[in-house]
Specification:
mainly alpha, 328 residues, ABC transporter involved in vitamin B12 uptake, BtuC, 2% strand
Length: 328
């Protein structure tokens, strides 16, 4: 991580950011400024959700690259509740959350069943389902759900009781929701019986099956839980940040969720910390865009550098170079 951050700093300096301003931009002005810190926490909430979603699926040896598709269908389900006025105003938001989780869960059903029943590679199936979800979203945004007041590709605004409320001091309800979900995932992974089975599956699915662990059922539960969390993340962005369903609300979250799970080594607490790091990069990246004309793609480049460095460190931890003396 340290090496990755040093390399990222060097890249930013080459791109035009003064070396003396890096600490100021990424730490002081972001974490020690009240407004910027609120922005980091605000951005971190959906990132925690997708990071935890990645952790659960990866622990089950299921490479869920369909987090964005599951986010999309979670947000679509929640928006359907608002458009069709399902439920009373007081119950609207809890209903939207429940439907969002079901939407993400259902979008994860097909790839996990294909994996378990037909041994279809989940990397391919989840990625392909992302494209289907994106096109369904575009159809709705440019078609029946397009806001009739203007020509932009987004749905009508949610009503005030359909938005995640503020708790005061500019903090959103999404933050305590993310913390509670992180604690639930921690309990699931470390204390529940399913979590114990999941640790067996994580180490070796074949050995787990040999000692009587219900491998298929454990993988199914973990992946569906993962899809539900991704769907909830979609609601957090739509009802917490955008205030409506938009055609690009999901962009960047899927890759970030994979990165967070990877950096955290599938640990829920570490994933929460990694999500805060990525949120800090997002907020700082927007500042760099304004003051130094640095493209936001540079933030994604920094994420990629971190992945490469962590992957490399894992290789060198597991392997050693030894000098062997040749014989006569």
């Amino acid at each position: 991580m340290i090496l990755g951050l040093l390399l990222s700093g060097a890249i930013l300096v080459v791109a035009g950011v003064p070396a003396g301003e890096l600490l100021n931009e990424f730490v002081i002005l972001t974490l020690f400024d009240a407004q910027s810190l609120k922005s980091v926490l605000f951005q971190a909430s959906p990132l925690i959700m997708v990071g935890l979603a990645g952790c659960l699926a990866f622990r089950a040896k299921f490479w869920n690259l369909g987090l964005e598709g599951q986010m999309i269908f979670g947000a679509i389900g929640a928006t359907a509740v608002t458009i069709w006025d399902i439920g009373s105003p007081g119950m609207r938001l809890p209903l939207m959350m429940a439907v969002a989780m079901v939407g993400g869960l259902l979008w994860a059903v097909a790839p996990v069943l294909l994996k378990l029943k037909l041994q279809v590679n989940e990397i391919v199936s989840t990625l392909m389902l992302n494209y289907i979800a994106i096109n369904v979203l575009l159809h709705l945004m440019y078609g029946p759900w397009k806001d009739p007041k203007d020509a932009f590709p987004y749905s009508p605004k949610y009503d005030s009781f359909e938005l995640l409320p503020e708790l005061g001091s500019g903090l959103s309800l999404s933050i305590p929701i993310a913390i509670v979900i992180a604690l639930i995932v921690l309990w699931f992974v470390n204390i529940s019986r399913a979590g114990l089975y999941l640790r067996f599956v994580d180490k070796s699915p074949k050995v787990a099956g040999a000692v009587g662990v219900p491998v298929a059922k454990t993988i199914l539960i973990a992946v569906l839980f993962s899809g539900a969390l991704a769907g909830l993340a979609g609601l957090m962005v739509a009802a917490g940040q955008e205030g409506r369903l938009t055609h690009s609300f999901y962009v960047g979250y899927g890759f970030s969720g994979i990165l967070i799970a990877f950096l955290a080594r599938n640990n829920p607490i570490a994933a929460t910390c990694a999500a805060l790091l990525i949120a800090t990069l997002f907020v700082s990246g927007r500042s760099l865009q304004v003051f130094y004309q640095i493209p936001f793609a540079m933030v994604q480049l920094i994420q990629a550098v971190l992945v490469i460095c962590v992957a490399s460190s894992d290789f060198f931890i597991r392997h050693r170079i030894r000098r062997v003396q040749g014989g006569d």
